[in-house]
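Priority: medium. Attachment 1 of 2:
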């Protein structure tokens, strides 16, 4: 096991971690995740480099995001998650890839735990324009905000 004091060379580990984080964010978006954020934590903690945070609208959709992220990271990078939590309950699933940790939450859990607020000093990674970012649409009658599906390119 690699301790935080004996990490691989920063150039190789960071580049792969950033690629992994961007890929996880892209897959979350493609599986209808919203409010995507990638936080760069390298200057704040030696424990991990990146957080990927996405919101899902239901337990089923959060499971779909988690399953697809696991599949794509395994296929593209040969990565297997080191650990995971929350799959049974499905309100907050955590996928641990060592240098990159993916957080998939429902809106209530995301607001309550406020990871972006907790890590407010972290730099936000700019996501490529190729990652679809559905806009939220407010329902004036109920005050709820629902994600708008991405426009079809057909």
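Attachment 2 of 2:
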């Amino acid at each position: 096991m690699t301790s935080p004091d004996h990490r691989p060379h920063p150039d190789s580990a960071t580049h792969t971690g950033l690629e992994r984080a961007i890929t996880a964010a892209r897959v979350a978006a493609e599986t209808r995740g919203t409010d995507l954020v990638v936080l760069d934590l390298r200057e704040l903690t030696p424990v991990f480099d990146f957080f990927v945070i996405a919101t899902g609208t239901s337990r089923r959709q959060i499971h779909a995001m988690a399953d697809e992220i696991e599949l794509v990271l395994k296929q593209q990078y040969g990565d297997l998650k080191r650990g995971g939590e929350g799959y049974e309950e499905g309100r907050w699933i955590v996928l641990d890839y060592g240098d990159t940790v993916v957080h998939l939450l429902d809106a209530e859990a995301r607001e309550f735990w406020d990871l972006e607020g907790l890590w407010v000093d972290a730099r936000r990674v700019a996501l490529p324009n190729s990652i679809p970012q559905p806009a939220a649409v407010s329902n004036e009658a109920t005050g709820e905000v629902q994600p708008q599906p991405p426009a079809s390119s057909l």
